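Figure S7 source data.
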Amino acid sequence: MLTNPKADQGLAALPPSLLAPRTNITGGRFAAARSGQTLDVACPSDGGVFSSIPRSDADDVDEAVRAAHQAFHEGPWATFSALDRGRLITKLMGIVDREADALAALESRDTGKPVRLGRADVNAALRYLEFYGGAADKLTGETIPFLDGHTALTLRVPHGVVASIIPWNYPLHMVSRLIGAACGMGNTLVLKPAEDASLSALRFAELALEAGFPAGVINVVTGLGPEAGAALAAHPLVDFVTFTGSSATGAVIQALAARHNRGTSMELGGKSAQILFADADVDAALPVIQNAIIQNAGQTCSAGSRLLVDRRIHGAVIEALAERFSRLVAAPHWQDGDLGPMINAKQAERVRGFIARARSEGARLAAQGGIADGAPSGGHYVPPALFDDVPPESELFRDEVFGPVLAVTPFEDEAEAARLANATDFGLVAGVWTRDGGRQHRMAKRIRAGQVFINAYGAGGGVELPFGGFGRSGHGREKGMEFLRHMSATKTVVFNHG
Ligand code: NAI
Ligand code: MG
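Tokens for the predicted NAI complex:
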């Protein structure tokens, strides 16, 4: 454990300039909200306020969107070739690498995530920039057999102004992949980060200016969802809207974008299942199953929040998991414990509510971890909970908790396992643990999820792997080459050459 009180709080690597009140970045300029209003920036580990961000309104958003619109239509950006854009992203990667320690410390302080996770997030950001820096000039169109005397082909063209509204759980992942894919494809970007975690996005945009992104290509406007977020989603000069967050807010944002019939991409969370068969390598599976719900304190859209387990090994698995869960400790980020706090008091209350209701709905609390000694009383800690015999009709089986709560339900056979896996309205990720090759393929086919892992699980990982959901988990795919395609539209060109 760290002992220096400054290092303790992740402050050692933080230059004072990063802790000063922040401004929006609009059209290459640093600007406070026109109203002068601000929002406090707090650390979830102790509840302490350590900075502020602009509380932007529709006027501030309008300015940012106009800057992005102008940069797309009139600025030098249109003259950047795909290769130029890729090189710029690669250059940004080098600058982010130089700033890695400070960015990681800033992210841990702003979100309460353990310092090793802050570092992991910076590494993921570097990897996104590496991937899209190289991929920007790799997306091609096609030629289409058509009428005699004609040649038909398709071009991949940018949408124009892409608006992105993102949540607080993995801002560094999202900002880097948006810059990589949206700007790699030639769009300009207006980003509205979450009010609880805006600092890394602001810093990223600042570093992008240093890298040489022209003014107006990357704009960041902070503020509240119903104010700044809603104004952005509904702005008539926005051409495409991407959103990551709750299903309810996703529906609101789609309705706002529909006013102008704009396309959207929705990444809306899940209730992802891991399915453990009796023939699996259980020893290999258990740490992965644990991590998939503990990582980022369960505040991960792809958290493995359900475990379906073969009745024949149910007792032994619960015993082993209970032993593990009872040892888990939620701790302030600077202690780098098993997990950190929830992002804010409201989310902590929400998770405690799920835990309280699960008992009354018939689930059995098999184990619960603890909170670190000396964790500040102002922090938002929830000890991880393991529930067994969770009924498929219960809330805990069906709804996203977004906290460190694992719901275990036993199954009798493969058919029931597949049915239970699909028995929620979500469909984001699944993990299947079995040595039976035929079953691996059957389950991969039957499970309705955007990603299916066999004898593995990727909560948040896999820059190269298309990611997104079915049903209430949303639509559209981020990550990989698929996200570049998504950040573009098809233009068909037909030549009549006789
Ligand atoms: P949220 O979905 O309301 O917030 C996410 C983003 O949307 C933030 O930037 C917020 O400012 C913005 N927003 C909120 N209302 C808006 C509106 N009316 N118009 C435009 N933008 C708006 O999520 P919240 O309230 O922070 O968390 C509630 C629940 O959402 C969590 O418990 C979890 O279940 C889910 N969630 C899922 C995430 C995921 O990665 N899938 C991430 C964050 C939350
Ligand atoms: Mg914060």
